[in-house]
UniProtKB/TrEMBL annotation:
Keyword set, alphabetical order: Membrane, Transmembrane, Transmembrane helix, Transport
Record GO biological process: glycine betaine transport; transmembrane transport
Transmembrane residue ranges: 12-33, 53-83, 133-158, 164-187
Protein name as it appears in the record: Binding-protein-dependent transport systems inner membrane component
Gene Ontology, cellular component aspect: plasma membrane
Pfam families: BPD_transp_1
Intracellular or extracellular location(s): Cell membrane; Membrane
SUPFAM superfamilies per record: MetI-like (SSF161098)
Topology of the protein relative to the lipid bilayer: Multi-pass membrane protein
InterPro entries: ABC_transp_perm/SBD, MetI-like, MetI-like_sf
PANTHER family named in the record: GLYCINE BETAINE/L-PROLINE TRANSPORT SYSTEM PERMEASE PROTEIN PROW (PTHR30177), OSMOPROTECTANT IMPORT PERMEASE PROTEIN OSMW (PTHR30177:SF4)
Domain of life: Bacteria
Organism: Ethanoligenens harbinense (strain DSM 18485 / JCM 12961 / CGMCC 1.5033 / YUAN-3)
């Protein structure tokens, strides 16, 4: 039982690490292209191209560069998570009416102050939506990391396939499904709380 719990925690840790890095890079990239809109098309196109690469092929390419193990999977999950984070950050910021930015400037705020105190808080629900998509997708994608030497729930599923043991396959699959449902619930809850907070303000 303890080994099973550790396997779930390892799967969550890999997923969280990959998505966290993607959130840092993707949010900054989304902010940048919302300010430099001429670069929005190319940046989103590159992220979209990465997203279209088959997951096994991407992990195989990364394995050649970084070797076997969890690090390679984390990098792969980060790359796969970039598109929804960048796109939703960009969409959330560019959807803010120009009048709100002008009002912030009229109050004496600098561009950075306006971004931090006004624009990003307004874009939070959209950004959270992108993170939710990235996290749920990464939970499933992390399963195939076992093929390049990582751990997590994919290891249980892979052992089940090798042994033709449906019980073991289901044992590895159900936690992935439950974690995905839990992640969607948590992020949806956060989005609703944020929307209520803005209404009350």
């Amino acid at each position: 039982m303890l080994d099973f719990i550790n396997t779930i925690l390892e799967h969550l840790a890999m997923t969280a690490a990959g998505v966290a890095i993607a959130v840092l890079i993707g949010t900054l990239a989304g902010i940048w292209i919302s300010r430099k809109t001429a670069f929005a098309g190319p940046v989103l196109y590159i992220a979209d191209v990465i997203q279209t690469i088959p997951s096994l092929a991407l992990l195989a390419i990364l394995m050649i560069v970084f070797g076997l193990g969890d690090l390679t999977v984390i990098i792969g999950l980060c790359l796969y998570s970039l598109l929804p984070v960048i796109r939703n950050t960009y969409t959330g910021l560019t959807a803010i009416p120009p009048s709100i930015r002008e009002a912030a400037r009229g109050m004496g705020m600098s561009s950075i102050q306006s971004l931090i105190k006004v624009e990003l808080p307004l874009a939070v629900p959209m950004i959270l939506s992108g993170i939710r998509i990235a996290f749920v997708t990464a939970l499933g994608t992390a399963v195939i990391g076992v093929l390049i030497g990582s751990g997590g729930l994919g290891y249980i599923i892979y052992r089940g396939i090798q042994a033709l043991d449906w019980g073991m396959i289901i044992e590895g699959t159900i936690p992935v499904v439950l974690l995905s449902l839990l992640a969607q619930y948590v992020f949806n809850k956060l989005q609703r709380l944020e929307k209520r907070r803005k209404i009350n303000v």
